[in-house]
Design goal:
GO molecular function: GTPase activator activity
Strand content: under 5%
Structural class: mainly alpha
Keywords: Coiled coil
Organism: Ibidorhyncha struthersii
Order of helices and strands: HHHH
Largest sheet: none
Helix content: over 70%
Protein name: RGAP1 protein
Distance between the termini: 43 Å
Length: 137
Amino acid sequence: IQIAWCFEATRQRCCRLEQDRQRAREQLARVEAERAALEVKLKHARNQVEVEMKKRHRAEAELEKQERKLQLVFESLMREPWGSGEQCSALSALAGRRFGVALVPGRRSSAVDESCQSLLNHSDISYDRTEDDVVRS
């Protein structure tokens, strides 16, 4: 009878362990599905950042092109024989107030805070799979 009780206790323990194992497998499957979904989201986010960075670079290049054109027009107007120095100084004041740093070579008149550049740099975003290897080993 003692042996039968021990076998029954062992059988019940095995049943509980089997149930625990099944719950753990189900949880693992849910977590792996969630991880896969998050990896897809991360991939899409990286692609979106890359697209936006390309758009920004194109826009910045266009801005610089337009600023160069504006600078040439401004210089051309400044070389024109004006009737008085008053008109020339008025044009300079208008250009300085209207365009600000846009007419200063090498300076950008961007409203974008450049300190955010590191946040948008998708090369900083990485996923290290070595952590997964350690966990699964």
